[in-house]
Write a structure and sequence with these properties.
Helices cover 62% and strands 3% of the residues. By secondary structure, the chain is mainly alpha-helical. The two termini are 23 Å apart.
């Protein structure tokens, strides 16, 4: 795999991979990853079946805010009891990829899809479609773009989404993506998001 493919698939910054290549035991890991083909790694990742942390029969849990990137439940005290359906509904109402991935690990694909579908009548169509795409991408990142078209480059760079930036990283170096974003007139907030998503440090 290329350096870009490794950082994308393992969700690590390029600087971390550079550190691995210089250290003892991790140097062997970096060498192994370089020898593997991305298709093989994707098959291995997608083949594993992870059971969600909570059973489908669990209805209430203690809120643990450290699981989430954004605190969408700021009015609720950490550690308080909360209905899983309510927690998921709040996070899918304003979806972001990192927290959608967390929801998937905690509660599973089937439950997320069921709750999202029950909320369809009360959600803006754009938010529902985005939450649906985030769930699908989090569930099968390696094969998502076999079924979904990548938007035009200009659209991606002006309104970045993690799944689209992940796809760009397979073709371009992070520095190239940042340069393209600037050339296409991406706003400062969009540029900041792209830098975070690519792990660009310069």
């Amino acid at each position: 795999m290329t350096k870009q493919e490794i950082t994308r698939l393992l969700d690590v910054p390029s600087s971390t991979l550079s550190d691995w290549e210089k250290s003892g035991k991790r140097k062997k890991l970096a060498k192994l990853l370089r020898m593997l083909k991305s298709e093989e790694v994707i098959k291995i990742i997608d083949a594993k079946v992870d059971q969600p942390k909570y059973s489908e029969h669990t209805r209430r849990i203690r809120l643990d805010k450290k699981h989430f990137k954004k605190d969408m439940l700021w009015s609720r005290q950490d550690g308080s009891q909360i209905e899983i359906k309510n927690l998921v509904s709040v996070y899918l109402s304003t979806p972001n990829q990192e927290d959608t991935e967390t929801l998937l690990k905690l509660f599973g694909y089937k439950r997320l899809m069921t709750i999202l579908e029950s909320n369809r009548p009360i959600m803006p169509a754009e938010d529902h479609a985005e939450a649906l795409d985030q769930i699908k991408y989090a569930n099968e990142p390696g094969s998502y773009f076999n079924k979904h078209k990548l938007p035009a480059l200009d659209q991606i760079l002006k309104k970045p989404k993690k799944r689209y930036i992940d796809a760009l990283i397979t073709k371009y170096d992070p520095a190239e993506i940042i340069t393209m974003a600037k050339e296409h007139g991406a706003s400062y907030p969009s540029l900041f998001q792209i830098k975070k998503m690519t792990g660009f440090n310069a």
